[in-house]
Amino acid sequence: MRAQGNGWNWLACASDWFPRRLVWIGCLIACAAASTWAQADGPTFQALNPRGNPPDVRLVPLSPRLQDLNEKTVFLIHAWPQNVQSGFEPVVERLVSGLKARYPRVNIVTRYKDSAYSEDEPELWAQAKREAAAFVYVAADSAATTMWSVTWAAGLEKAGTPGVVLHFAALAENAEATRTKLGTPLRLVAVPNRSGLGDGKASDVTEAVVAGLTSPLSETERATGTRHSEPPSRIAVTGSLSEIQDFFYAQRWTDGLPIIPPTEENVAAMLKGTHHAPGEIVTPAMVPEGWPATVEKVAINGVMAGALPNEMPVLLAAVEAFGSGHFASGVRSTNSFSFMQLVNGPIAREIGMNSGTYALGPGNRPNATIGRALRLFIYNLGGGENGLNLMGTQGNVGSYAFCFAENEAASPWEPFQVSRGFGREQSTITLFAGGWSHTGNMLHQDLHRLARDVAYFQWPSGLVALLAPATADALAKSGMTKAQVEEDLWRNATLTMREFRNDHYYQRFIIPILKGREMNGLRNRWPASYLDLPDDARVQVYPRDDVHVVVVGGEANAMMQGWVMWGATTVSVDKWR
After folding, report:
1. Are residue 220 and residue 300 in the same domain, yes or no?
2. Does residue 499 lie within any of the structural domains?
3. Does 443 reside within a domain?
4. By the number of CB atoms within 10 A of the CB, which of 75, 307, 495, 554 ranks highest?
5. Which 3-state string (H, E, C) describes 151-175?
6. Which residue, of 156, 191, 224, is where some domain finishes?
């Protein structure tokens, strides 16, 4: 107040003799001075460090290299199925020609993964161990595919087969972060991105691959033992509110918005929202980098997000759900995922969540802070960093905050957590992945129109249909249960097999599942009979188990919308009280 008073007194005197147009300049100067004086006299804070601690890593040495490739079998392993464009086609063509020119008696065997890039394929790895003297693993223009390519290549090296990984240059840091996490110093060969493949540089890949397969191992590549991770300091920074904001932003610990300083006092208050000990592990492997996350670190990031202590059980449950392993590929993906958080049960009412009008929009503190906190968890508890291992090509506005409660009081059906096997008086949080497409709002309970529109969403995916209470009530009065609404949407969301087969992801993901392979731990998401159907046959495009209905919104209108969301993971909030 002292600084403000001095500024305005000076301005009042100046206005007696300054020309009127200069009074406004004086006003600006005074306001700036007042801000500076107030900041200088303002309080300072000690902000706790929000970062998790990466686990210790066991170092795995590379396999011995070959002297040359003549008379040797080299497996060329493609992360994506045959006939699916990865972007590496011109590079691979030149690489094969270059290897054969240099080593006329080399035997190059091409292998494609029969399963999705993220799925283990023990048969292929065993074949490589038996038959290959070396391998070249070809990734794709996909951050998640690059991560998994490095992961599977590390397994081949550990099993005794030397190799290299081809990846696009734009994903170099992503590949580097993965091999560092794994403790295997894989030899990586960066290739110019698609736009640079016509300038002749791709031919240089041959020399890099030859060096990767034949150059003797360095001391680092032969190292064993454990690489220990030093825990971050407890106090991140001491300073004014503005200085803390600037420091946290410079460290990339925020979502770009201002944060609440996580002081000892604020964090201690947040910890009163749970009976669990500060050092307890909430998840041993928070994505994207698989770091262990403790209760206290969740509290620190919750404070930063603006959450209150009574929200703490929901925050802990969200971290537990997100660390379950289903979301690793989506976090890294170039596809720009977001993650929907749905809260059910008494906890939503206790903490004042919005399930009615504008539930998916701004204006409600717990909806906003719980939603926002997830992104801080990904950054600080999971080691995420934009442009390094968070590679969404366009990003997703839903990544700021996408959290709401179901309007159980206005729903004519059982709430979502009951459909997932929990009791009506049990509190849960459910996380979904996807969020890059949605349709609506739609009026008048037109389920067929919704089914028609969502049939053209990207696959393989799921559907979450958000129904306003009036929509749900009208459908219930017509005699439909929630399960019947889901069945109706699933049954009528159809394409011809020609359309389905022509989808970008059919070869990459759906065919392996039709052949009995897993994806994200799930089998038989579509019937195997799809493989033999004629082009004009109409088929359901969604797995039945990935079609969900949630009642949310106010009473103003009978509306509904559909979101691409799948992989529902529901956990108890009550266990974290």
Report:
1. no
2. no
3. yes
4. 307
5. HHHHHHHHCCCCEEEEEEHHHHHHH
6. 224
Residue 397: name the closest of 438, 454, 357, 359 by CA.
438
Per-residue pLDDT of the chain (577 residues; tens, 9 = 90+): 333 333 333 333 333 333 333 333 333 333 343 344 334 447 899 999 999 999 999 999 999 999 999 999 999 999 988 877 888 889 999 999 999 999 999 999 999 988 888 889 999 999 999 999 999 999 998 899 999 999 999 999 999 999 999 999 999 999 999 999 999 999 999 998 765 554 445 568 999 999 999 999 999 999 999 999 999 999 999 999 999 999 999 999 999 999 999 999 999 999 999 999 999 999 999 999 999 999 999 999 999 999 999 999 999 999 999 998 778 788 888 888 899 999 999 999 999 999 999 999 999 999 999 999 999 999 999 999 988 888 888 998 989 999 999 999 999 999 999 999 999 999 999 999 998 888 988 876 689 999 999 998 876 689 999 999 999 999 999 999 999 999 999 999 999 999 999 887 787 788 888 888 766 656 668 889 999 999 999 999 999 999 999 999 998 889 999 999 989 999 999 999 9
* Assigned token pair, 233: 């300091």
Domain that holds residue 36: 2-42
Within 13 Å of residue 108, how many CA atoms lie on the same side as its CB? 18
The domain total for the chain is 3
Q: Would 519 be classed as within a structural domain? A: no
Q: Identify the three-state secondary structure at position 115.
A: coil
pTM confidence score: 0.87
Round to whole Å and give the CA distance between 259 and 47: 11
Question: Do 315 and 451 share a domain, yes or no?
Answer: yes
3-state secondary structure of 412: coil
76 and 172 share a domain? yes
